[in-house]
Amino acid sequence: MSERAATWSFPQLEKSETEHPEPEVLCRPAADDELPRGARTVARLAEGAGWAVAATYSRGTKPGRGLPVVDSIALRVRRDGVRAWAVWLNGKFDQAQMLPVGGMPVATTVAGLREVLAAPSAGQRLEGAA
Description:
Oligomer: single chain
Number of strands: 6
Largest sheet: 6 strands, antiparallel
Structural class: alpha+beta
Low-confidence stretches: 1-7, 124-130
Region (Disordered): 1-24
Order of helices and strands: HEHEEEEEH
């Protein structure tokens, strides 16, 4: 190891001054009627294409985004070693990522996620995720 590499240091993250209360509803499996329409559509598409699907619900504040309390739906899917997740806050899509086998996470949209989920092979359409 070079002498320079041995002396690298990383800045310490400052602790947030914002206190977050305990969640009103701890993370639990989501009921079908709790899923926003977009999440329900993605979940049904994934299940129909052979993906394992899990949806969770929680209610609380989101660190880093201020203190309003939000309803949160997280949808997680996996198949052939590929994984993805998407989050809806208060019924609106917030963010999603795909994780290809042996790769780095790729941010995606709902449309990109649907395209990958509908592909015959999970790894076949990951370029559509970006």
